[in-house]
Amino acid sequence: MTSTLIDPATLPGWSTDPAARAAARLDRSGFDPGSDPDAVVVAGSVDEVAAVLAHANATGTPVVVRGAGSGLSGGAVAGAGSIVLDLTGLDRIVEISPADEYAVAEAGVITADLDAAAAAHGLRYAPDPASLAISTIGGNIATNAGGLRCAKYGVTRDSVLGLDVVLADGRRIATGRRTVKGVAGYDLTGLFVGSEGTLGVVVGATLRLRPAPVATATLAAWFDGIGAAAAAAAAITAARLQPSVAELLDTACLTAIADAGGPAPRGGAFLLVQTDGFGADAEIDAVRAVVEPLAGSVDVAADPAGAEALLATRRAGLPALERLGRVLVEDVAVPRSRLADAVDAIAAISARSGIRIATMAHAGDGNLHPILVLEPGRELDEHVWACAGEVFTTALRLGGTLTGEHGVGLLKRRWLRDELGDDVVDLQQQLRAVFDPRGVLNPGKAI
Amino acid sequence: MTSTLIDPATLPGWSTDPAARAAARLDRSGFDPGSDPDAVVVAGSVDEVAAVLAHANATGTPVVVRGAGSGLSGGAVAGAGSIVLDLTGLDRIVEISPADEYAVAEAGVITADLDAAAAAHGLRYAPDPASLAISTIGGNIATNAGGLRCAKYGVTRDSVLGLDVVLADGRRIATGRRTVKGVAGYDLTGLFVGSEGTLGVVVGATLRLRPAPVATATLAAWFDGIGAAAAAAAAITAARLQPSVAELLDTACLTAIADAGGPAPRGGAFLLVQTDGFGADAEIDAVRAVVEPLAGSVDVAADPAGAEALLATRRAGLPALERLGRVLVEDVAVPRSRLADAVDAIAAISARSGIRIATMAHAGDGNLHPILVLEPGRELDEHVWACAGEVFTTALRLGGTLTGEHGVGLLKRRWLRDELGDDVVDLQQQLRAVFDPRGVLNPGKAI
């Protein structure tokens, strides 16, 4: 084997240029490894990915796979001693099958580009992480990214039919299939999704596409406070309605939006609901009927322009917070019935710690994004992490999880055993060793 | 450890009675291991499951887990040298959470019973394998069972949030979570689903429930032949409609139904379509519009009684075939666009082999059930398996899979490398060894 090894330094995409290495050091997590990676290699083909891995495996060199670098958990940060394998050059949409409603895409394809290509056939790629305009399919798969439409359409895993993977030693395998169903062998596809670059390098995927809905209806409601808004979300569930989107903003979000000159708040909490499909209008009427008794005011959009106006408040949330300082976007999930408890507990953590925390939540699936806002000049110090840690343990105490859709990366590793238990973490480490016996794939991350 | 081992022969559920052993030897696959298992133990609790496994692991005794014995791939057959661990006594529905739309159930709960319990809250358990009145949740999880509603609502995996598992050495772990989203650690839940009793013993599950649809609409269409029916199914897809059910019967099925005194055929192929939700009626009208130009006749049910009348043809299929002789229910899947090719190829295999094959298909997801009907007195001989093998290789040639929803079990092992390739099978065997290093869990099955 070693006689056929190609030195990655001979590849056209190889660089040890200081600027290239510095650009590949960070992601959007706020975590700094303290040094630059030794080199960056922009893969020009799957064969080059295989060559890089075979060499890294033979030499014991850590490899950090990088897409758009938009991750929020530190999964793609890379320091001295490692090389960064950049997949953004693998950006071909290989196939769209309108008849079988799937797409085959390379890992570096931007998620929004795939969705746009699907739209030309009346289809859509359902997962819609907030980063979709910049993040890649490969990165979405690495973290099992979610988005706004998950409660109805599932997370990334639910849209991945199969994967093309390069193993740590450079061998290539295909997992899954192009059919909707299949149960031949263990679900390796599911194992790779969410594995954050630690089991193999996903270079391509067969992705399920779904019919674009014939209609979408939009409702916005304002409430006195988070308790009433959460009660409204619970009432929607209790009425057995299934919105495609149900987004909740707390008072801290609404205040920041107003301070930024955005839509004026009409209450202390905001809930945005969308329904879709042939029954969108009938279902939004049913939503209105259960929400209205709990709300201060309710608007249903009459047309797409009206829907955009209602969506503006939700969209204004993160930019308004980013104006105030550096943000740490957290990502916990709880059973939906504990949403109000979670938001209240997070507000109490904010008050105790003195760190401003605003919470946006995907109310339909119980996924909360508490956003820690640091005053200008403040670093991500231990006090900030302790505050984030309180948020994590709150989610676990309420029966939830450390991470709904962003992944464990570097930032949440120290809490992982609290959620999973020692036996499960130990099993997962053994699984990791099956795929990567030499420990070259994103060492120190995820599990 | 050995000092604390409990001999399973001391458990109240233990039996070496010949009748009990004989009753645990077969499932519904038609495969006979040629001998009875050494013993059967009906577990009375999870602790007893753990005790059985710890002892089996220590002594190297093969354990075959059994639910209702309704499997069609031989995953639960058990011969001399093995003990059968029967989970049908673990039949408690532990919790239904209407607020969070999940259920916690033990492995031995009958699938239909869970669905009925959910219905009391306006919810349903979406996976609906044809065996749901007799099969168990644990068995459904072991094979990642499908059903009629998969194209819209997914397979069993898509409704499993978390699992309670006893490992081969008797340790207990919990996988997954009660939240809709979560990405902390590798997806062990997905790994256990479809693993056919080879990675651990699933003793309980947290299952996602979904709103029962407010309305369901039903359409039945008759066509000259399978080509037109498949074209109609393709037209439904091309119109970006999403039926909850789309079932196709071929001429051989319809002939058997008519011979059995069932509904008279009005063509050479039959397609049953259901839509559901707030837009069910509007969506069935859209289905009708695309199907009608291709069909000989189309009926849309006016009410539930009318829907039952249309469903009667589909329901009559398997019983009509079982009248004619012993049946071998196969289970392949192809990309939906290859449905007609697959049905045609299977008809040719039938003509060539002289073995009657009737095909029913879940047209919405490309899953076909070619049903081999053996004349009375005929055994499952090599000629029959060769014929089944031709069906499997046809599915692979068309870009499909050996098994859509029944599992590999014993019957399909010899074709598994053809689908997965050597590298993937080898990796899966290494994963298996992580969970079951002594090889006591259902040896010789699945991978």
Automatic annotation (TrEMBL), chains A, B:
<dbReference type="InterPro" id="IPR006094">
    <property type="entry name" value="Oxid_FAD_bind_N"/>
</dbReference>
<dbReference type="Pfam" id="PF02913">
    <property type="entry name" value="FAD-oxidase_C"/>
</dbReference>
<dbReference type="GO" id="GO:0016491">
    <property type="term" value="F:oxidoreductase activity"/>
</dbReference>
<dbReference type="InterPro" id="IPR016164">
    <property type="entry name" value="FAD-linked_Oxase-like_C"/>
</dbReference>
<protein>
    <submittedName>
        <fullName>Putative FAD-linked oxidoreductase</fullName>
        <ecNumber>1.-.-.-</ecNumber>
    </submittedName>
</protein>
<dbReference type="Pfam" id="PF01565">
    <property type="entry name" value="FAD_binding_4"/>
</dbReference>
<keyword id="KW-0274">FAD</keyword>
<dbReference type="InterPro" id="IPR016169">
    <property type="entry name" value="FAD-bd_PCMH_sub2"/>
</dbReference>
<dbReference type="InterPro" id="IPR016166">
    <property type="entry name" value="FAD-bd_PCMH"/>
</dbReference>
<dbReference type="InterPro" id="IPR004113">
    <property type="entry name" value="FAD-bd_oxidored_4_C"/>
</dbReference>
<dbReference type="InterPro" id="IPR036318">
    <property type="entry name" value="FAD-bd_PCMH-like_sf"/>
</dbReference>
<keyword id="KW-0560">Oxidoreductase</keyword>
<dbReference type="GO" id="GO:0071949">
    <property type="term" value="F:FAD binding"/>
</dbReference>
<dbReference type="InterPro" id="IPR016171">
    <property type="entry name" value="Vanillyl_alc_oxidase_C-sub2"/>
</dbReference>
<dbReference type="InterPro" id="IPR051914">
    <property type="entry name" value="FAD-linked_OxidoTrans_Type4"/>
</dbReference>
<keyword id="KW-0285">Flavoprotein</keyword>
<comment type="similarity">
    <text>Belongs to the FAD-binding oxidoreductase/transferase type 4 family.</text>
</comment>
<feature type="domain" description="FAD-binding PCMH-type">
    <location>
        <begin position="33"/>
        <end position="212"/>
    </location>
</feature>
